[in-house]
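Known limitations

Files may contain more than one protein. Parsers should not assume a single record per file. Below, a two-record file is shown to illustrate correct handling: read the sequence, read the token line, then continue until end of file.
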Amino acid sequence: MSDGVETLEFQAEARQLLQLMVHSIYSNKDVFLRELISNASDALDKLRLESLVDKDLPADTSDLHIEIEADKDARTLTVRDNGIGMTRDEVVRLIGTIAKSGTAELLRKLRESSDAAASQELIGQFGVGFYATFMVADKVTLLTRRAGQSGGTRWESTGEGTYSIEEVEDAPQGTSVTLHLKPVDTEDNLHDYTAEWTIREIVKRYSDFISWPIRMTVDKPGEDGATTPEEQTLNSMKALWARSRDEVDEAEYKEFYRHVAHDWADPLETIHMRGEGTFEYEALLFLPSHAPLDLFSPQGRRGVQLYVKRVFIMDDCDALMPNYLRFVKGVVDAHDLSLNISREILQQDRQIRAVRRRLVKKVLATLKDMSAESYRTFWTEFGAVVKEGLLEDPDNTETLLELVRAASTHDPAEPTTLRAYVERMKDGQSEIYYATGENRATIENSPHLEAFRAKGYEVLILTDPVDEVWVERVGAYDGKTLRSVAKGQVDLETEEEKEKAEAERQEYADLLTFLGGALADSVKEVRLSTRLTTSPACVVGDAHDMTPTLEKMYRAMGQEVPQVKRILELNPAHPLVTGLRKAHGEGGDTAALTETAELLYGMALLAEGGELADPARFTRILADRLARGL
């Protein structure tokens, strides 16, 4: 049966992570036991589920539990479960490597972090709990056998870059992890993890809510001073979500959140709800206080945990929570679902869809009722994700619009609500003006804002990529059209200004015709602008054109989109434009005028943060003009 002992190397990133965890300074090393118990609980959940689905599975499920065994003399601590276990290939894949998106980013942040609490927070975010054992152990031995299989696997490592693995014949069902503990070092927060009171305290603090019994044999003193061994259960096993809210204190909620979210920080908000009627369920949901590193990763965790009558069904149940609320953590325990339910069935299940609608409405209502300070924190971390809901969830568009916060020209620091913007609108203003771009500085310096700033109109400053899409999709708020300052004609003029503009259009007609021909390959039209006050020119789109940023986004996703020609607008009050009109009227050199037109168009592109089609030609023309001017 045995193929002997084989020595393998950790994957490079796993090895780096091990070194960082072993040699970093942590304020609380107790986390290792919480993570081992959590892993054991997951293994028991999976065995229970598999035995329900496969009635013929040859596995003993009569007494599923977690056992902790401490040996003071040998200075070892063992955490054992009789759950699903692992095959040899699973051991290599799950422990020898880190198959998680964003590991390189985690390593970078850990190296940069000199703060112990911040380091722990990052470890917790990525859920690499098994590696935490090397904070307290010189050597770790794992013995496991997959339920239903005859042979087991022994894995062992000192965390120095390699591990040994071998097949064994006498492994019991499940997994045991034995830590060969480092010496006690109170200065380094290395406690005596063989001490009964230490183990009890850690289990109570972190794992009291685990639904499986956590047992330990302890020495019970007798009347004559002698001790007798007695097996005791260390946890209450009472599911937090099944209790009423007044039976649970904040500390318990926080510890439960840390368990389900693998996060060291406290949650920003707790949602404890119960659904009754034709379909009963309990839900305990949390809004995190910071965004996980994989929030925008396609491989990131999605959804909440699903239980049926306290039996674990699946992690990351995306059928219960829409993608734009993917940061919500917690559990939903349904009473009437089949235990054999799959992700595909869940997507179609009418009752699950009804639960999802209720959960979404509850989460959105909770966000609406949050304090200003808490909501400011929430929006900073998750605002860009929530706005995805304006594309995905038409049923809740009005609620989501009330939740939107946006920077604006009204206040350089404090974002505004759409409701507050509407209340500040000028008399006669019928549209909500906005500008999109990569950052606030670029937008505020854009020529598109000049007339709006001069006439005192407030403009929303939208810098998230999703803003390019949702403002077009939604179209209006409270009966007011959402209008881009960089698209279409701008009507901010008085009657007197309109009459003056009409006279100027007649005066500039010949120049506009010439420029339209000279720049025909680049623009669809050249016209005089009513949105410029200081810049000579800007480029704008028609009212229904796709923006350049949106074009880039689609191309980055591999989608081919036709290139949209834009409109060049000129400021008739700028000396460069008046000089160009005069030179053209006097029959100036056509080639020189054409080059000036190219420079004008190029400057307009650069002013809005755009890219030149031929930067080398632009710089050559500009250099020649500068040289002639000296």
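...continuing to the second record:
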Amino acid sequence: MSKSPLGQPPAPPELNMTFEDAGPPDAPPPAAPKKSLRANTIIVMLGTLGSRLSGILRQLVLNNLFSVTLLEAFNAAVTIPNLLRELLAEGALVNSFIPVYKTLDDAGRRKLAQAFSGVLIGVNLLLMAVGILAAPYLVDLLLASSSNVDRELTVFMTRMVMPFLMLISLSAIAMGLLNADEHFRESSFAPVAFNIASIAALLLLPKQAEWMALGWLIGGVAQLVVQLPALNRFGLLPTPALIRHPAVGRVVRQMAPFTMTAGARQILNVYVLRLLTDARLFDKGTQAGYFNAQALFTMVNGLFIVSPVLAVFPRFSQAAAEKNWTQFRALTASTIRTTTFLAAPMSALMIALAPYVISVINTHAPRTAEETVKFLAGAGILSSWSLALVPWALVTVLLRTFYARERTREAVTVSAIGFVLEVGLYRLLVPSLGLLGFGLSTTISGLLMTAALTVLYRRAVGFPGREVAGHLLRVVPLAVLSGGAAWLVARALPIQPGFILTSIPVLALAGGAGLAVYLGGALALKLPEVAAVTRRLRR
């Protein structure tokens, strides 16, 4: 499943020694006070909220200013740089760079940033050139042989958007450096700059394929540029250079298995795209509906799952580096509790209100057959995907605990098997169940991956299973009641989905009723997550 994710580090080489070799200094400086984990989480969540809301606005602009034909070709074209971005930049960088970076002293960190950024730029330049030259062959891998998407238009737009890979990779380096030192504000709000810049370009430029692609690149430039002042202010701005550094090998070794995992996930994404573009299975417009559902799902996943995990990841890495397993287990339990407490009601509400949720990107009700297909496909996929939100919240947290301990081989093995299984489930369920098959496949895969990761975690450091299980046994039934209440309220209202202005009141009333049921039940059960919010409101 995509998605929509919608969110991831020795001394200088001339001394030929590692940080561990140096021994403690005679008079260690006092440790800098740790930043508030709650404040970090709030910053990341606010940045993610801004990013996802502006992303929905960008999706609204794309859907209402461009034809389904152009939109679907664009969606397929940006798949290639997005695929390579996850393989080489955002996910792999955050999850491999930070644990290694945190083990070095200040001089080692500067050298590592300089060396690693130089290597990554060189690799991205090579891949960008190959992507432009091999665009026709790459598009043939993405689209079904009996495609409902314009192939020639997709090839043209793929070549246009390939430079985005370099822009997003440089932005990922900036994000990794800032996050490693727990500077989350600029990196968290950088995607907002991407969306605002691309929206402005889409609105101002001609409504043609080449200008649509240029708007995407302008957004990539903005996402990089807004992080540069913060890097300079904190003394983290690297000067990329092709120099050797012993820690680069550690990062690459960490990235290699994660890249393999991301590669398995991208095989899944490619297979999904081939399914959606197969005219024998789905009508034209289904792929556009899928990407709309992905944008909305990614917003919820990024805000309520990825943001808390991203904020706590440096703490996981620090606890692992210090071998403080008591703190590590406590962080694991609290992060799982937080993410599932937030994810469970969102899952239930999206299942109950999916047609109204997908309507927030429609400035008018569907008018043509293609627009109707796009709307119904988006609602169906969003509803089925929402089943997987809680299982994948667990997977997201648990995977980060393995990366923090530099146990990437175990995480990679479980992830790769999970994604292969998901491909098999798609192949088995989607042709017979249609859109529902997407969500069921992802849910089953997420549950099995959670089980495997839990077993491996318990063997290594002892999993807080009783606390997590007790929490889930309370929040999941509450979420079911919440979704049921929202569905009943929506059914009672004489408003049909399909148009943003009429759907927002339904979401406010039905969603508000569902959340009231959930929070009321949480208060009755005295869940600490809602009690903490109550204490803050009383101050």
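Parsers that stop after the first record will miss the second one. For reference, the second record is described as follows. Residues 1-33 have pLDDT under 50 and may be disordered.
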